[in-house]
């Protein structure tokens, strides 16, 4: 009976969170939210590494779950090679992420159109990129565990909503899992050029402490970015598959087949097409 009551209460909280996201997405302009000092692009200034001492204990567990690559020098770059797929088909692709939040996606079928964000300069390689490409970049950059964790020192507002949320809508007592811990975070979206602020719900697996999905509302569209097939390499964990859905329909997926962890490099990767 207690588990059933707990589950019903949790689902009420989730519905309330969705309502909050809808209101914020529709009504709250960026200028009305008191976030930390920002650059001209609306991106909060961020240190190169995440300091565990500046995180609440629950977020510290998420930081440790992915390894030490956000905390100490020598493992700042993550390179994932694999397949990108959308409604037009699939192609080979490479995703490069580097602390504190630079990113580059190269797709073989669009060799002259990499999606790039340079966190150091807070600039895009393609400032006139389409809305679709900006949304892709948002899922790969802003919806990730890395962005969530850097947000604690980058001016985001966080609110922990609790643990042991169920993955289904049933309230029966024979549920076997998985269970989620849910945190709402509000801040500037780095991948969008208009200084947009969003409230997002981040779902972490209660057992592994790894990010499972990020949910929010973009206009009237319900967006979910899913992270699965988590893999550990040299003590560092990364998602093997990333999927973005809008109102339940898949927009794109990225599946990695190879990964490499490398030190910080200033090699022009995040300056554009090269």
Task: Sum up the structure in keywords.
globular, 19% helix, outer membrane lipoprotein receptor (LolB), chain A, 4 helices
Question: What's the short story on this structure?
Answer:
This protein is α+β, with helices and mostly antiparallel strands and 274 residues long. 19% of the residues lie in helices and 38% in strands.
Task: Kindly describe this structure.
- With 274 residues, this protein is α+β, with helices and mostly antiparallel strands.
- It has a single domain (2-271), classed as Lipoprotein localisation LolA/LolB/LppX (outer membrane lipoprotein receptor (LolB), chain A, Clam), CATH 2.50.20.10.
- Helix content is 19%, strand content 38%.
- Strands 5-4-3-2-1-14-13-10-9-8-7-6 form a 12-stranded antiparallel sheet, sandwiched between helices. A two-stranded antiparallel sheet has the order 11-12.
- A hairpin with a 4-residue loop joins strand 4 (115-118) and strand 5.
- The chain is globular and about 55 Å long.
- It starts with a helix and ends in a 12-residue tail after the last strand.
- Residues 1-9, 11-16 and 18-45 have low confidence and may be disordered.
Annotate the secondary structure layout.
Layout: H1 2-27, H2 57-65, E1 77-86, E2 89-98, E3 102-107, E4 115-118, E5 123-124, H3 131-141, H4 145-150, E6 157-166, E7 179-188, E8 197-205, E9 211-218, E10 221-228, E11 231-233, E12 236-238, E13 241-246, E14 249-262
């Amino acid at each position: 009976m207690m588990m059933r009551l707990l589950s019903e209460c949790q689902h009420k909280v989730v519905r309330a969170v969705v309502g909050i996201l809808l209101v914020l997405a529709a009504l709250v302009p960026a200028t009305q939210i008191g976030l930390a000092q920002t650059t001209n692009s609306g991106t909060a200034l961020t240190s190169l590494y995440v300091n565990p001492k500046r995180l609440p204990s629950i977020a510290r567990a998420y930081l440790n779950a992915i390894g030490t690559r956000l905390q100490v020098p020598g493992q700042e770059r993550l390179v994932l090679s694999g397949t990108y797929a959308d409604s037009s088909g699939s192609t080979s692709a490479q995703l490069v992420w580097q602390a504190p939040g630079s990113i580059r996606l190269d797709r073989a079928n669009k060799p002259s159109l990499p999606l790039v964000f340079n966190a150091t300069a807070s600039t895009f390689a393609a400032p006139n990129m389409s809305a679709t490409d900006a949304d892709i970049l948002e899922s790969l950059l802003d919806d990730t565990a890395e962005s969530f964790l850097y947000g604690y020192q980058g001016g985001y507002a966080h609110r922990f909503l609790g643990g042991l949320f169920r993955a289904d809508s049933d309230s029966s007592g024979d549920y076997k899992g998985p269970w989620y811990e849910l945190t709402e975070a509000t801040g500037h979206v780095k991948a969008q050029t208009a200084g947009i602020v969003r409230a997002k719900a981040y779902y972490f697996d209660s057992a592994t402490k790894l990010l499972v999905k990020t949910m929010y509302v973009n206009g009237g569209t319900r967006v979910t970015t899913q992270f699965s097939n988590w893999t550990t390499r040299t003590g560092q964990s990364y998602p093997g598959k990333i999927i973005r859905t809008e109102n339940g329909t898949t927009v794109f997926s990225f599946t990695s087949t190879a990964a490499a962890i490398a030190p910080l490099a200033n090699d022009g990767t995040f300056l554009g097409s090269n």
